[in-house]
């Protein structure tokens, strides 16, 4: 019997969105709707499985965990970019790693960023809760028209922020380590220096890939440069922002924030950001759409079938052929 674990199915939809029975009667599929929070918990729960199906980067797969999974032969991860799997260790242990198509995150994540911006600027979460509780309006909102959007990163996702900002009547400025003035102008933004972006923008939206050069790129110094009551939006990766410095600024009422990503995910129940003032929070929803999942799960089944047939597809890592 080939045992397959489908991990982190928070919405409990994996079984309904793909034909798992097509894998054959000799396959047993178990779906986990919770996050396995520690390596010890993951090792104990997953040791009996031959195949792991990961939802993006919700559960890391370091080499130390792989060593505790003696039956593991195949990993299928949704999306095409993953930095939480030890690929070298996978190859060394004879484990194949495959991925699905990327889904629609290039559209979905920037759309969520605008949802967070509007929620913060018009105090929608607070007013929604107030109406539910029997109250009525108490806040003063802010328009986007005439404001300046600062994009930290102007790639595929950051670039999609520009036409929406223009539709709202905003000026758009941008900076990243490799961005040039011509590329910025082509995307409809004006290239500025990093300090100028933080000093000038009413809204700073982060759209960078997490790496050694970008980890902590929004630190205490950058946050201190921001305007009083400016809004910091992060829908990319939590560690791009110094969370301790951000929490201090929020508590002091220096800036506001709208966050979809965090240093630790899922957020522990007592995590300080859960009760911080001046912040709108969402639980890493950027890529979480029905159409994306309708691609992820059938692609996962397809990848398992291809691997079983001896011709794995969309391979990220594979042991040498025998």
UniProtKB/TrEMBL annotation:
Gene3D superfamilies: NAD(P)-binding Rossmann-like Domain. InterPro entries: D-2-hydroxyacid_DH (IPR050857), D-isomer_2_OHA_DH_cat_dom (IPR006139), D-isomer_DH_CS (IPR029753), D-isomer_DH_NAD-bd (IPR006140), NAD(P)-bd_dom_sf (IPR036291). The keyword NAD applies. Transmembrane segments: none annotated. One of its GO terms (molecular function) is oxidoreductase activity, acting on the CH-OH group of donors, NAD or NADP as acceptor. Keywords: NAD, Oxidoreductase. Residues 115-286 form the D-isomer specific 2-hydroxyacid dehydrogenase NAD-binding domain. This is D-2-hydroxyacid dehydrogenase family protein. It comes from Propylenella binzhouense. The lineage of its organism: Bacteria, Pseudomonadati, Pseudomonadota, Alphaproteobacteria, Hyphomicrobiales.
């Amino acid at each position: 019997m080939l045992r397959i674990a489908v991990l982190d199915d928070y919405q409990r939809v994996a079984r309904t969105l793909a034909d798992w029975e097509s894998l054959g009667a000799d396959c047993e599929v178990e779906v986990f709707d919770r996050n396995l929070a520690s390596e010890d918990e993951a090792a104990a729960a997953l040791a009996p499985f031959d195949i792991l199906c990961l939802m993006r980067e919700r559960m890391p797969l370091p080499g130390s965990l792989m060593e505790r999974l003696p039956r593991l032969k195949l990993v299928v991860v949704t999306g095409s970019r993953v930095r939480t799997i030890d690929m070298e260790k996978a190859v060394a242990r004879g484990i194949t790693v495959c991925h699905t198509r990327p889904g629609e995150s290039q559209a979905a994540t920037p759309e969520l960023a605008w949802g967070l911006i509007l929620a913060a600027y018009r105090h929608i979460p607070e007013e929604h809760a107030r109406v539910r509780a029997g109250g009525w309006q108490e806040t003063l909102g802010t328009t986007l028209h005439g404001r300046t959007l600062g994009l930290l990163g102007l790639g595929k996702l950051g670039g999609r922020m520009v036409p929406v900002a223009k539709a709202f009547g905003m000026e758009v400025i941008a900076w990243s380590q490799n961005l040039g003035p011509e590329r910025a102008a082509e995307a409809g933004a004006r290239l500025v220096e990093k300090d100028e972006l933080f000093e000038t923008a009413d809204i700073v939206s982060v759209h960078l890939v997490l790496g050694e050069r970008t980890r902590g790129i929004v630190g205490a110094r950058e946050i201190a440069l921001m305007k009083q009551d400016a809004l910091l939006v992060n829908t990319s990766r939590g560690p791009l922002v110094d969370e301790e410095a951000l929490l201090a600024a929020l508590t002091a009422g220096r800036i506001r924030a709208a966050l979809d990503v965090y240093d630790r995910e899922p957020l522990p129940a007592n995590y300080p950001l859960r009760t911080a003032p001046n912040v709108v929070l969402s639980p890493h929803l950027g890529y979480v759409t029905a159409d994306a999942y309708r691609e992820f799960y059938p692609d996962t089944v397809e990848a398992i079938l291809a691997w079983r047939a001896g011709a794995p597809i969309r391979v990220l890592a594979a042991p040498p052929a025998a």
